[in-house]
Design a protein that fits this description.
Elements lengths: L6 H9 L16 H19 L4 H15 L2 H22 L5 H22 L3
Length: about 120
């Protein structure tokens, strides 16, 4: 039988990980498009942050492997979902990245998109 939980301990467990330090989830001086995307992304980002750290890589890995193994359109769709997630995260982190990190993200998205097109064409 589990010992009874104290109020503070139970609240901490239910809330998941605390949010990162900072005043805002938004980029200061951002344009209209960036501001709109950041505002729309706030809730999904907080939701992802509160899940276990292994969940997003596990789901993305499963989608990527399924995309490589599944035939035709199903595989292409899985790979497109992976690419869309990468594009979303790259867009949100772009202002804080240096040139090398930006190039790595662009390359990663391009590789996944090439694989998706190849899968859609039956290769």
């Amino acid at each position: 039988m589990a010992p009874p939980e104290h109020g503070d301990e139970k609240r901490r467990r239910d809330q998941g990980r605390p949010l990162p330090e900072g005043d805002s989830l938004y980029t200061p001086g951002a344009g209209r498009l960036r501001r709109a995307v950041e505002e729309r992304s706030a809730v999904p980002l907080v939701w992802l942050h509160q899940r276990p750290r292994w969940l997003a890589p596990l789901v993305l890995g499963a989608l990527f492997i399924t995309g490589l193994m599944a035939p035709g359109p199903v595989g292409a769709l899985c790979l497109l979902l992976v690419a869309a997630f990468f594009v979303w995260l790259a867009f949100l982190t772009w202002p804080s990245l240096n040139g090398q990190a930006r190039a790595a993200r662009v390359l990663m998205v391009v590789v996944v998109l090439v694989l998706a097109v190849a899968r859609a064409l039956g290769y």
